[in-house]
Write a structure and sequence with these properties.
By secondary structure, the chain is mostly beta strands. 10% of the residues lie in helices and 26% in strands. Strands 1-3-5-7-9-11-13-15-17-19-21-27 form a twelve-stranded parallel β-sheet, with no helix packed on it. The chain has a nine-stranded parallel β-sheet with strand order 6-8-10-12-14-16-18-20-22, with no helix packed on it. It is elongated and about 75 Å long.
Length: 427
Amino acid sequence: QINLSNTWLTGSLPSWLGSLQRLEQLNMGQTWLQGTFPAAIGDLKQLRELNLEATGLAGVLPSNLCQEGAASNLLQLSVRGNSLTGSARVLEKCRNLVQLDVSSNEFTGQLPASKYWGRLTTYHANNNRFSGALPRALCLHASLLRDLDISNNQLSGNVPDRIGLLASLERLNLASNQFTGPITENIFYFPGLRSLDLSNNGFVGTLPAYAMQFMYALLAADFSNNTGVTGIIPPQMGFSEHVQTVTMTGTSLSCSGITRPYAVSVNASCNDAAKCRTLQWVAANATANQSCTGDQVLPCFLRFSAESLPRDDASNMRCKLIARRAPEEARAACSAGQPPYSLEGEGANLPDSRKTASEQAWVIDPSYYQYRGCTCLLGYAEAWTNNGTVLTCVEQPATDGRATVTIAVVSALAGCAVLAALAVVGA
């Protein structure tokens, strides 16, 4: 083996590396190498681990890197953090890959996927320029895949139902692509899924309520910046007792229900009419700005905390934090009322989860809960519109110099108090 990683090694990779026929491990990551990827590495038939991450390599992957009979034993390959270009589909010939990382390069074309990747557990291809649809071969053959990160590319189209075949997934990151269409409910059936990021795409429609009750292992989820996602936050999310952070900003979610037209698609394998949704088109809600009742403002398992903080945007307002209800209170609230805001009989089965606002953060736009629990900062006046469902904070003109100074001083003191409180929480 050769391990020269994390050194000040410079120059280019020598062609004589191809003569080391018994070499099994080549690790030159985090060095100052430059030049192109040498084709001679494709001649290393016994190579099992190849790490050339963050070395400054440019050019394309050699066509013989994974030729049949050459480098066929390769289990781990990392070339992340370089300037490699062109197609990466030569990797589809690698038959024994377990870990593959091609992230943070300049690869283009179709995302590599292969019928030979039945042993693959980790696949990072984020921060490239891959385009096209999510490959069918990836869903059909990478059944052991646990960690899939293809964020920050140019992938498009619907996320297919067959993604549900990746039953071993623990981390799925599809963020910052161009995916469209409804969010397939099959994403939420992975029993071990701990992290889900669908942010910054073009998804539309409602969140699949029935499927979301099965996210038992979920720790973090991000649905933000999908403006076509509408409807309410399903109360079924209350079954995710281990959640630490859920982000839902930049959507059209609203406690008043559907606010945008959308099409609903249903899992083809689902045949229970009481739990499945059929293909239909739902128009925009003409009463989207109606005032939500107290038990509709937040999902039944959530409540407003007594603490509030200024928002980190240009709204010039502060809003109460959102926390999980105590188990007994959550079960009672989610058992009362009518669907889709309640769980009816299932409410009694909510988990015994006691999370504070700092332990389980629900980041939701104030427009969802119609700005209940929000007030304007000093120096700004409240202006309510849309039947009292939208709050705007309007700057007040200063009456004299003393008033301006007073407002500035009080605002500064309030800011210092907030920072001190955050420091205590962080400690």
